[in-house]
Amino acid sequence: MNQAPELVFVYGTLRRGGSNHFRMAGAEFVAAGTIAGRMYRIDWYPGIVLDPAGDEIHGELYLVSPEMLSALDVFEGLSAGEMEGSEYRRIQTQVMK
Questions:
Q1: Mapping DSSP to helix (H, G, I), strand (E, B) and coil, where does residue 6 land?
Q2: CA distances (Å), origin 15, targets 19, 31, 32
Q3: Which residues have a catalytic role annotated?
């Protein structure tokens, strides 16, 4: 059974011009957008904690295949969807244009 593509908001190195944007090859760019949250530096990469009273964080919205979504999870440090013990979370949020 084919799964439908999903919308993914990216920020940091996955955005156009970022050092890891090549990982978005094959994804369909939908729009630039923002989310509300707090951005933190975690070692050499950024991390976000969603917060409706937080800052406006700029990023990009892409339509990605289930396969690409799995590959992005692996890039973020997950294997087989294991969230326990990981600082990475893939969660739903509202993106503003």
A1: strand
A2: 8, 11, 10
A3: 76
